[in-house]
Queue: 2 jobs
Job 1
Amino acid sequence: MTKFIIKRLLMLIPVLLGISFILFSIMNLTPGDAATLLLGDSSKPEAVEMLREELGLNGGFFERYFNYIGNILLRGDFGISYRTKNPVFTEVFTRFHYTLRLAFAAIAISSILGVLLGILSAIKQYTAPDNIITAITLGLTSMPDFWLGLMLIILFAVKLRILPISGATSWKHFILPGFTAAANYLANTIRMSRSSMLEVSRMDYIRTARAKGVPEKDVIFKHTFKNALMPIVTLVGVNMGWQLGGTIIIEQIFGIPGIGSLMIQSIRLKDVPVVIGCVMFVALLSSLINLATDIIYMYIDPRLRAQFAKVKKKAVTAND
Amino acid sequence: MKNEKLLEIKDLYAQYNTDEDIVYAVNDLSLSLDRGRTLGLVGETGAGKTTTCLSILRLLPERIGEISKGEIIFDGMDILSLSEDEMRKIRGKDIAMIFQDPLSSLNPVYTIGMQIGEVLKYHGIYKDDQAIENRVEEMLDLVGLPKERKNDYPHQFSGGMKQRVVIAMALACEPKLLLADEPTTALDVTIQAQVLKLMNELKERLQTAMILVTHDLGIVAEICDDVAVMYAGSIIEKGRIEDIFEGQVHHPYTVGLFASIPNLKVKTRRLSPIDGLMPDPADLPKGCTFNPRCPHRMEVCKTEEPPCVMIGEEHMVKCHLFASKEGGRP
Ligand SMILES: Nc1ncnc2c1ncn2[C@@H]1O[C@H](COP(=O)(O)OP(=O)(O)OP(=O)(O)O)[C@@H](O)[C@H]1O
Ligand SMILES: [Mg+2]
C-alpha cells in the first residue's frame, strides 16, 4: 500500500511541472505589466523600471520560468507576491484554511444528506417521498448559487438576524455559505445515490440476500449500499475537488477571504507568482483527493484490491 | 411422518403487471410435494417455472409481480397470509432457493464465509460467532471446498466452485424444501454431473424435499421421484417418474416434448422442439392453452379449459382427449 501511495505521489511531480509551465506561459501572454499595475498608471517611468528590475521581470521568458522552478525545487520558495511582498507560500496558506472549512461544511452536508435522501428515494421508488425528493433535486439544480446565497442572506441575516451577513471570523459565518455550496452538490449526490442504489438492487445477489432471509434493512444498508458506493465516492471526490478549488462566487457573496478570492484578486493585479501558487496548490490537492478516492475504492471492492495486490507482487518479483 | 405433505399449491395464479400489459405467467397451477421427495419441473422457456418458485418464497419482483389468486400451504402454514417478517424467517431457513444463474448470486464485496454465515446468523440457529464459523467450515467441507477459502471473495472462485458455495449457502440451515432453479445450466457438463451428484447426496442426508427445475430429461430420470410438465403457466401433466417415462398415456405436449414415448433406458438428454411457439403469456388462447399447437385438436379445445384427468393413482393429465372414460389415445 505504501509503495502504491509513494508511486502515485511521485507521479504528481511531472503533472505539477506541466501545470506551472502552462500557467506561466498564459500569464506571460496576457497584456498588462505587473509593475505598472502595482504603482498605478500615473507613476513615473523610472519608478516602474526600478520595480521591474526588483521583481526580476526583465529577463527572457525561459530565464524567468527556470528561475521560478529552480527556487521551488531547491528552496521550496514559490516566489514573492508582487502585491504584498510576502512569500507566496504564506499568502496561499493564510487564505486556504477558510476555503478548507467551507469545503468541509459543504461536502459534509451534501454527502450525508444526499446519500440518505438518495437511498430513501430509491427504496420508495415511484411513491410520494421519491417524487418529493425528485422535485427538490430539480429545484436545487435550477437554482443558481449566487441567487440562493443572496436569498439565504436576506432571510437569515437581514430579516431574522440570526446569522451574520458576511465575513469569516466564527463558525456561524460558515453556516450560510456552507449550505449554499452544499446545495450545488446535494442535487447530484441525491441523483447518483438513487440511481446507483436502484441499479444494484436489481442484481441477482440482492435477490439471493432476500431469499436467505436477510432483513430488509440489511439488504439495503449492507448488501446494496456497499455495492452502490463506488460511483458515490467518485462523485464526492469530484465535488470535494471543485469546492477546494475555491468557489469564487460563494466566497465573494459571503465575504470569505478564501483561495477563490485570493485568486481573483491576484489575476486582476497580474500577481503571477500568487496565481500560479494558488493553482498549483489546488492541483496538488485535487490529485491528493484522487489518490484518497482510489484508496477508498480498494477498501470497498475486493476485486480492485486484488488487482493492486497483483501489481505489488509483480513489482516485488521484478525487484528480485 | 411418511408421505406427509410438505408443500401444497392450490389454483395458483401469478402475474407481472408491466407498463405495456399484464403477463399471466402462472395460471391455475396446483401441485403437492411430500417430505424428502424430489419433484422435477420441466417445460419450455417462459413456461413459468421460475415464477412458480419465486411465488413460493414470495419473492416476485416488487410492484411488478403479483400473486393474484390461490393458496400455498407449506408445512401447515398458509404462506400467502404470513406477515413479511414471518415470511423472512422462513426464507433461507425452511425454504431455500438456488437461482437460475448461480454465478451472479454471490455478493462481490463480501467473503463467501460471511455470505454462508449470514444465513445462520439471521436465523439464530447458532448461538455464537465461533459456532457459526465452525458450521461455515463444515458446510464448505461438505460441498468439497477447502475451509481456508472462507475468507476469499467470489471473484476468486471458478464457476463450479461458486456453485458449490451457493449450494452450501442454501443447505446451511438444513431447509425442509429446496427450490433449485436450473442449478447446473451455467456449468459445463463434467461439473454439472459432480454438482448434481453432490446435491443428491446432500438432499438424501438432510432429508430435504426439492423442486428441481430443469430442461434436462436425463437429470430428471436420475434424480426425481415425481415429474410435473408445465406449459403456459399451468401443469398439464404430472405423475411419478415411472408414469411419465414409462406410462402409455400422455398429454400431446409431453409427447412432443419427449419426441417419442420416452423411456428410462434410452435416455433422451434434451427436450425436443415442438412446432410453433409458446403462446404469449400476455395474450393466452381461449380454451386449452396448447390448442394452437396440438396435433389432436378438437372443437372443444378451442373454447373450454380442459379438466384434470387422473390416469393412474398419481398420474394426472390435463387434456380433453381423456375427459371421457374410454378416451382416445394420442
Ligand atoms: N420481471 C418480469 N416482468 C415481466 N414479465 C416477466 C418477468 N419475469 C418473467 N416474466 C414473464 O413471465 C413468463 C414466465 O417466466 P419465467 O421466468 O417464470 O419462465 P421460466 O419457465 O423460468 O423460463 P426459463 O426456462 O427460460 O427460465 C415469461 O413469459 C416471462 O417473459
Ligand atoms: Mg427460469
Job 2
Amino acid sequence: MQNTIVCRCEEVKLGEIISSIESGATTLRAIKVVTRAGMGICQGRTCRPLIEDCLSKTIKQDSNDVQQLNFGNPIRPIRLSELANTRKG
Amino acid sequence: MRISNHPVLENTAGDEIEFTFDGKKYLAKQGETIAAALLAHNIRILRYSMKEKRPRGIYCGIGHCYECRVLLDGQVSVRACLTRVRDNMTIVSEREDSNEF
Amino acid sequence: MNFDLVIIGAGPAGMSAAIKAAENGVSVAIIDENPEVGGKLLGQLYKDSKSGWWIGQKIADELGKKLTDLNIAFFLEEQVCGIFPRWEVLLSSGERLHGKYIIIATGAAEKALPIPGWTLPGVMAIGAAQMLTNYHRVKPGEKIAIIGIDPLSLTIAYDMRLAGIHVVGIYLPKKSEFSHMKAEPKQLISYLSNFVHVLPNPFLKLFGKMLKYPVIQNLAITYYPSFGIKVFGVPLHIRKAVVEIVGENQVDAIKVEKVDKNGSANGKMEEVTVDCVCISGGLYPLGEIARVAGCEFAYLEEVGGYVPLHNENLETTQAGIFTAGNITGIEGANVAIEQGNLVGLVISDRLGLLKNSKEIIKAKKKVLLAREEAVISFQPQIEIGKEKIAELWNKRMNE
Ligand SMILES: Cc1cc2nc3c(=O)[nH]c(=O)nc-3n(C[C@H](O)[C@H](O)[C@H](O)COP(=O)(O)OP(=O)(O)OC[C@H]3O[C@@H](n4cnc5c(N)ncnc54)[C@H](O)[C@@H]3O)c2cc1C
Ligand code: FES
C-alpha cells in the first residue's frame, strides 16, 4: 500500500503521508504543507477524508479531534481574469 | 459500448454530432458529455498526470475530482464528465505542457 | 444580481426548496455546475416495492419543469467558487449573486477507497458507473468488478445487470488504512444485516433476516462458498478481497485473494480479467461551501461525517444561511425533497410571505415520515445521528 497514491491530483503516496505524520505533521494543514496532499485542483475533495483516516490511524486520534483544514475562498478553481472582470463591474 | 435496449428506461434518441479528440474525429449524441461520448468509443484515457506522466480517466463522474480534465478549444482544465459535446468541438487530452490555471 | 434567496445545488433538496419559496413569492436563483438540473437524482434507478420503479431522471424532469414555470433564475454550468458575507456568491464565470438568504444544498460526495492501481483509467467510483449506466447509457466496461459491499454498490450492480452489462463479481477491498469495516467480513455482515429492507433479492432478504443473529452471522462467514453467492446473477464474495488492480495504460485485471473472518489474507491469489473496476467507499456530506461561509460543524459517524450544525428549521449557525439535503446527512432522495420543501417554507416565512405557518409544522412531519419510510438507506443509525445534532444545536444555543 505504501506506493499507492492517496492524493490523485498531486500524486502523493500513502508512504509519504505516513512518514510526514511520523516526523511531526500531526494536523491536516501540516501534512498538506509537507506533502502537498490536498493542494491540487480538486482542493482535497477526494483525499481529505483519506488523510483524516491516516491521521486517526497513525496517531490514534478520533475524527472529532483531528484538526480540520481551514477552508477558504475560492473553493473551486477560478481564473484571475474572471475575478478581475467583475471587480470592475 | 452503448446500451441500446434498456428494459425499464426509455431509449435515448438524439441526433449525432461530430467532434475531434486528439486529432481524430468521432460521433457523439446530442446532449452527451465528452466523457460519455469518448467511453462510447472505448476511449478511457483523458489526460496524463503531471509528475509521473501516467494516464488518467474519469473517476467520480460527477464533477468532484477533476481527474477528467481536458483541453477544450484551447481552454484548460475543462471537466469532461460535466461538459456537453457541441458540434465540431476540438478536444485534446491534458498533459504536462497544457498550462494549468 | 440581487435575490431574496440564492440556492447552491439543484439536486432534489435545492429544487424543492426553490419551488416552495417561489410559490410563495420569494425571488429565487438556483446554481448548479451541471448542464442539467437533478443532481444525483439523474442516475438513480431502483425498484420501490410501493410505487414501482424509482426513476430519478423522471423526478428531476418534473421538478425542473416546475422551476421553469415559476420563472426561477437558473445558473447552470456554473461552479460556486466562493461565498462572502453577507451574502455574496461568486460563480466561475465571475458573476456575483447577492441573496438575503442562502440555502446550501450541495449534496454528498463519494469517499475514495485507495487500492493499488486505482488511478488507472477504467477504475472509477461506483457513482460514475451509476451515471454512465442509467443516465448516459454507456457501459462503464465490458467486464466489470465491483469493490465494496454496501446498499449503493448492490443497487448499482443490479442496474448494470438490468442494462445487460457483465459484472464478474462484487468483492471486498484490500484491508488498509482506508478500508474500515468494508474489508472485514464479520463486521460487514453485521452492518449489512441492517439493510434487509433494501436488499432487493428475495434470497438475500431471507439471508438478511437470519443474519440478525450473531451465531448465524458467524456460520454464514465460515461456510461462505468460495464461488460466492449470486445476487441478481452477480457473484457476491464476502471472503475475497481485491488486493491490486493491474494494467499498463488502463485496467486489464484484478488480483483477488481469499481472506479470513477479519479480512486478513490467507489464501491463494487469483487473477480475473476485467476492463473496468468500480469502487464503492461510501458517501460523505459535501460541506465545503458552508465551511467557507463560517458555519460551525460537527462530526457524527451516524450521519456519515462532518455536517453543518443546524436546527429543525435547517438553519445553520451563520445568520441567513440554511441547508438541506445530503449535506445534513446521507439519506435517500425522498428525504432530501422533504427537507427542501421545509426550508423553502421557512425562508418564505422569514420574508413575511408565508400565509399559513402551519405548513411548516406539516413539512417537518413529512421529513420524519420520509426518513421512516425510506426505501433506500445508507446510515443505519441516521435517526440517532439527527437527534445528536439537535442536542448539539441546543447546547450551542444555550452557551
Ligand atoms: C454517487 C451517489 C449515488 C447515490 N445514489 C443514490 C440512490 O441510488 N438512491 C438514493 O436515494 N440516493 C442516492 N444517493 C444519495 C443522494 O445524495 C440523494 O438521493 C439526493 O440526491 C441528495 O440530494 P441533494 O439535493 O442533497 O444533493 P445532490 O442530488 O447531490 O445535488 C447537489 C447538487 O449541488 C451541485 N453542487 C455541489 N457543489 C457545487 C458547487 N460548488 N457549485 C455548483 N454546484 C454545486 C452538484 O452538482 C449537485 O447537482 C447517492 C449519492 C451519491 C453521491
Ligand atoms: S470524473 Fe471527477 S470531475 Fe470528472
